[in-house]
């Protein structure tokens, strides 16, 4: 454990709530997603906004299809993937001083965004929908039509507390589809999701470390495996990774190592630079809240977010309770009228055929052979919002 005293970074007026939260954590068994967090570690952002972190380096996303051969395209996929990690897992630390618990989305919540065409890279569009509330599952679709690159996926979290840290197992997967610019055959890449540990809970300054491994499996047979370690491993620095690209026969083609929040190198710590993620990120462009429909994240949570940002936690709590009560009533109304909720942008399938084919190439006994998925409905590309 860190040498800090317990609760060292907790605001004085929040100490009692924090102590109660830690006590509840220690007594909790099973999934923590339904727990109510104390206000000082609440984020003003809903989980439906998180898929935007996949593309805060839109140039890397667009450039994948420009790779001259299978190996170069896989390397570009890996570079883009590593470039998404600091945005996905450390952004809240940078902006708010520590990791914050995002707002739990309501069923049917929507988020739309765009990264405009800059320097001819093409426009990149994002569509997100909360497709399940129990368990919470977020589905997303990202496409740059001009570049011939699109990503479809879904994610959920299963969380547990182990004494000093929260362990998060991410469920779901993503499928990246690439049409090579040189006219080659379309390629698909299965991306499995890394596990997380949220450290620093006991002194009130949560931060994330990625743990274990995840993989990127290409339809060409190439596999990228990424291993994550915290401080004291590999380089002795936090947020460290090592990655290897290998053939279908398991022969290593190239390797990469460094920090996913900073610089990484090809072939070893003294090799050529592979990626430097310390440059500016390009946040997604979103319509002003006044132009959004009622189901869109920032419109839905506008008063909760305002309360959190201004420190008016009482107001934030009341607004949050109102939204949650309204959702409970919707579920009751649906049950009494024997109606089921309908997704707007995605269709649920019990077994994802792309996942099935690509996971079989992984040679990983821990990856299940089948997994469900939420398939994007292309006819809804220009649909915004849903009727109330």
Please give a quick description of this structure.
By secondary structure, the protein is α+β, with helices and mostly antiparallel strands.
What would your notes on this structure say?
The chain is of the alpha+beta class and 388 residues long. The protein contains seven helices and 18 strands. The strands form three sheets. Strands 3, 4, 5, 6, 7, 8, 9, 10, 11, 12, 13, 14, 15 and 16 form a 14-stranded antiparallel beta sheet that branches. Strands 1-2 form a two-stranded parallel ribbon. Helix 5 (302-310) runs antiparallel to helix 6 (313-336). The model has no long low-confidence stretch (mean pLDDT 87). Pfam families: Oxysterol_BP. InterPro entries: OSBP_sf (IPR037239), Oxysterol-bd (IPR000648), Oxysterol-bd_CS (IPR018494).
Tag the structure with descriptive keywords.
14-stranded antiparallel β-sheet, 30% strand, two-stranded parallel ribbon, 388 residues, alpha+beta
């Amino acid at each position: 454990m860190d040498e800090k005293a317990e609760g060292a970074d907790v605001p004085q007026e929040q100490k009692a709530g924090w102590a109660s939260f830690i006590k509840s954590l220690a007594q909790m068994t099973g999934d923590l997603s339904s727990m109510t967090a104390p206000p000082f570690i609440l984020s003003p952002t809903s989980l439906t906004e998180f898929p935007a972190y996949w593309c805060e380096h839109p140039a890397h996303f667009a450039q994948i299809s420009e790779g001259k051969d299978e190996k170069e395209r896989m390397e570009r996929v890996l570079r883009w993937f590593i470039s998404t990690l600091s945005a996905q897992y450390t952004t809240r630390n940078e902006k708010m001083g520590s990791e914050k618990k995002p707002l739990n989305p309501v069923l049917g919540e929507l988020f739309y965004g765009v990264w405009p065409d800059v320097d001819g890279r093409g426009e990149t569009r994002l569509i997100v929908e909360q497709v399940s509330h129990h368990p919470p599952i977020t589905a997303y679709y990202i496409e740059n039509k001009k570049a011939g690159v699109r990503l479809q996926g879904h994610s959920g979290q299963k969380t547990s507390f182990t004494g000093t840290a929260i362990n998060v197992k991410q469920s779901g997967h993503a499928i990246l589809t690439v049409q090579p610019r040189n006219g080659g055959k379309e390629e698909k890449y299965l991306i499995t999701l890394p596990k997380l540990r949220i450290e620093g809970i006991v002194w009130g300054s949560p931060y994330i470390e990625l743990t274990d491994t995840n993989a990127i499996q290409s339809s060409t047979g190439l596999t990228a495996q990424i291993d994550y370690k915290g401080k004291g491993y590999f380089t002795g620095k936090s947020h460290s990774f090592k990655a290897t690209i290998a053939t279908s026969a398991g022969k290593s083609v190239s390797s990469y190592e460094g920090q996913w929040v900073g610089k990484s190198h090809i072939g070893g710590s003294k090799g050529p630079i592979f990626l430097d993620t310390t440059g500016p990120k390009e946040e997604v462009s979103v319509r002003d809240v006044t132009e959004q429909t009622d189901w869109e994240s920032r419109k839905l949570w506008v008063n909760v977010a305002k309360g959190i940002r201004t420190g008016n936690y009482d107001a934030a709590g009341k607004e949050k309770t109102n939204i949650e009560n309204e959702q409970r009533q919707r579920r009751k109304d649906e049950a009494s009228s024997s109606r089921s909720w309908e997704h707007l942008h995605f269709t649920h399938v019990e077994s994802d055929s792309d996942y099935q084919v690509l996971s079989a190439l992984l040679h990983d006994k821990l990856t299940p052979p089948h997994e469900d998925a939420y398939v994007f409905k292309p006819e809804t590309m220009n649909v915004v919002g849903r009727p109330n």
